[in-house]
């Protein structure tokens, strides 16, 4: 292919087609499972329909039709229903379709149906539709192509492998036109990022299907430009006849083939309608609220749908919607579906509300397991990891106790020598562990899961990968210890041996980030595949480090047994144990899996801020339909459900981070630069989850 795409040779093209086939299979399995969990076909798919959007949101029809210069073109007929979404998309010559609709109108279900129908009709060379959540894209920092490639590599780790062209498979598939992006949730982007997103889309020629709420898309288009060559359709609300067809068939029949919905539907059909009937009809006109009502009243016998017509309890549409949203989670946890365990509904709702609150405060809809560490406040996280970092060397030193009687003989076991060789290194490395723990907890990110890539660098490459931080810290520790040791009359050979062990360890430790594990795309990639890959990678790195250090330990024992130098042997042994502790600590505090274990699986459950087994809890919520899976992350079933749960959460006061000390210095520097006014970028809140800078309101916040 030419133009904006990379030229791919025949053998390279075949390899990309094979990768696209594997990707298509995994996408199909994943989204069919999601469709089953959403119960889209139980009892039948809702009759979602749409019509061509009003003028002013779509581009010129001549651009949409890709007409030549000077050519005129009329409007396309794009009206349709859910089972015609692929056909309607193929009527658009530009391959760009924007689906608009209010919250809960079925945009995501339409996108899901589009993906599965496209895959059913796909031939070998057709692009693979893949869903991308636009809420995580910052068009000011990343181009659309780079962001799409990063998401592909994260959601399908094997696509980070190199292709025959030398590029990672994710990039190569995009360049070859073998991926069709389905961009879900344009309205979920920060308000200040929507206009740059439109401009970024206009700089590409890629095909895509995009979903958004109407007003958010209209505001972005009004402030910049329409999306080039994009046609827009708008979802229509469900009619009362659609509701009357769906709800009775979603519950068991009663006497005379009637159902619990018959009195409600009869009231809705009465003329003239009552205010309660008008409100309920409006609520049930969206697929989201209709599905919630079905879950609460059709699938259980504890709730009577007639209560929805109680105008004293539910005076307007928002009150009815809040009732359905707040009742959904307890009902979802009221039974125990196959493959799940019994859980307390109220406790589960409290944990889900805490997750929703954190995600909203972070300004994201993606529930990434490696980011749950941030649910612990910065000071608490730093103190917890510092405590573990300080105590871990003490536990490591306990390993030397069985061999101390053998090592400490009368010939050299002076108290000063024992203090020099044992106690001083213990104090230094314990302090270093506490400092590393504090830095990792307060300022570190914990890293992201390992990429699916394995490289074994050569000796010269290993030397260039030695990291400066561990070198400086090890040099300071060795320097202080060597000074004390030599001042007490120690042997130079002891210092040389210690330095040799440290150098070997630092070289191996520096090359570890280049060693990765593979994840097979032929299996269904779940969010926990990345966790398992990162855990395997961390363990393999630790084993490689311990192998090198084990050789030093054996050498120390041989030196002692042969009687050549008990002092030298003891030095090498202690140095080996301390560096082994450093290897273990770096695997725990410096990796995503390590911080997941220490913070998410230990600290949060201990303080009753998370369930005992967070991974099982999230997977269980996914099976119950509260969460959905989007690649390597979880999301709440709908953004409205996340916002509702977030508002119901009451965060503990001690979990809020105090102002960081250096913010005052930064503010002073900005004041010196910009005069007597200072623009603040406030932290995200529930009502303003993206901060003032992204929402465009920061210009009104000034500090004098």
From TrEMBL:
It holds the Pfam family NACHT. This is NACHT domain-containing protein. Residues 694-704 have a biased composition (Basic and acidic residues). Residues 680-704 are annotated as: Disordered. It comes from Saccharothrix ecbatanensis. Gene3D superfamilies: P-loop containing nucleotide triphosphate hydrolases. It comes from the Bacteria. The keyword ATP-binding does not apply. Keywords: Membrane, Transmembrane, Transmembrane helix. Residues 97-195 form the NACHT domain. The chain crosses the membrane at residues 382-404, 416-438, 459-484, 490-508, 542-563, 583-606.
């Amino acid at each position: 292919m030419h133009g904006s795409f990379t030229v791919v040779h025949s053998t390279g093209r075949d390899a990309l087609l094979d990768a696209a086939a594997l990707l298509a299979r995994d996408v199909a399995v994943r989204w069919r499972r999601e469709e089953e969990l959403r119960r889209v076909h139980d009892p039948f798919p809702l009759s979602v329909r749409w019509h061509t959007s009003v003028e002013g949101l779509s581009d010129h029809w001549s651009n949409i039709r890709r007409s030549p210069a000077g050519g005129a073109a009329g409007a396309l007929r794009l009206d349709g229903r859910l089972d015609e979404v692929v056909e309607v998309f193929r009527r658009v010559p530009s391959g760009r379709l924007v689906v608009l609709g209010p919250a809960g109108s079925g945009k995501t279900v339409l996108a899901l149906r589009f993906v599965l129908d496209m895959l059913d009709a796909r031939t070998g060379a057709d692009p693979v539709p893949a869903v991308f959540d636009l809420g995580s894209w910052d068009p000011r920092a990343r181009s659309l192509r780079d962001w799409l490639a990063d998401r592909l590599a994260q959601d399908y780790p094997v696509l980070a492998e190199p292709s025959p062209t030398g590029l990672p498979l994710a990039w190569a598939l995009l360049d070859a036109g073998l991926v069709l992006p389905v961009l879900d949730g344009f309205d979920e982007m920060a308000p200040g990022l929507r206009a740059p997103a439109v401009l970024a889309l206009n700089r590409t020629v890629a095909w895509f299907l995009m979903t958004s709420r109407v007003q958010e898309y209209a505001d972005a288009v009004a402030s910049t430009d329409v999306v080039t060559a994009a046609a827009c359709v708008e979802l229509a609300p469900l009619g009362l006849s659609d509701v009357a067809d769906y709800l009775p068939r979603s519950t068991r029949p009663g006497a005379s083939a009637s159902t619990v919905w018959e009195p409600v539907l009869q009231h809705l059909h009465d003329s003239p309608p009552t205010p309660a009937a008008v409100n309920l009809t409006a609520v049930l006109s969206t697929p989201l609220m209709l599905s919630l009502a079905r879950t609460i009243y059709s699938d259980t016998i504890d709730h009577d749908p007639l209560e929805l017509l109680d105008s004293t309890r539910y005076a307007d549409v928002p009150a009815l919607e809040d009732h359905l949203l707040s009742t959904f989670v307890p009902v979802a946890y009221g039974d125990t579906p196959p493959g799940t365990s019994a859980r307390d509904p109220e406790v589960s709702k409290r944990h889900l509300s805490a997750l929703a609150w954190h995600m909203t405060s972070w300004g994201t809809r993606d529930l990434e397991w490696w980011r749950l560490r941030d649910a612990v406040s910065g000071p608490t996280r730093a103190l917890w990891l510092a405590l573990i970092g300080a105590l871990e060397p003490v536990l490591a030193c306990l390993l030397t106790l069985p061999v101390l009687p053998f090592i400490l003989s009368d010939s050299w076991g002076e108290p000063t020598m024992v203090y020099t060789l044992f106690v001083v290194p213990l104090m230094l490395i314990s302090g270093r562990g506490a400092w590393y723990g504090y830095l990792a907890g307060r300022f570190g990110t914990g890293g992201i899961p390992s990429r699916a890539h394995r490289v074994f660098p050569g000796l010269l490459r290993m030397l260039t990968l030695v990291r400066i931080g561990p070198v400086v810290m090890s040099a300071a520790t060795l320097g202080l210890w060597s000074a004390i040791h030599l001042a007490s009359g120690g042997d130079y050979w002891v210092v040389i041996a210690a330095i040799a062990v440290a150098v070997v360890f630092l070289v191996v430790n520096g090359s570890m980030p280049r060693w990765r594990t593979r994840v097979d795309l032929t299996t269904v990639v779940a969010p926990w595949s990345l966790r398992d890959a990162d855990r395997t990678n961390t363990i393999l790195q630790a084993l490689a480090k311990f192998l090198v250090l084990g050789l030093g330990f054996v050498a120390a024992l041989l030196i002692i047994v042969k009687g050549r130098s008990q002092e030298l042997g003891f030095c090498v042994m202690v140095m080996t144990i301390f560096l082994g502790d450093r290897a273990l600590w770096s695997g725990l505090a410096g990796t995503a899996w390590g911080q997941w274990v220490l913070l998410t699986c230990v600290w949060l459950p201990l303080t009753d801020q998370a369930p005992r087994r967070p991974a099982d809890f999230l997977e269980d919520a996914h099976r119950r339909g509260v969460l959905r899976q989007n690649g390597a992350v979880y999301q709440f079933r709908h953004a409205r459900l996340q916002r509702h749960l977030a508002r119901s959460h009451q965060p503990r006061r001690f979990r809020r981070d105090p102002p960081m000390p250096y913010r005052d210095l930064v503010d002073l520097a900005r004041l010196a630069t910009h005069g007597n006014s200072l623009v603040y970028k406030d932290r995200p809140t529930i009502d303003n989850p993206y901060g003032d800078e992204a929402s465009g309101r920061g210009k009104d916040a000034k500090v004098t």
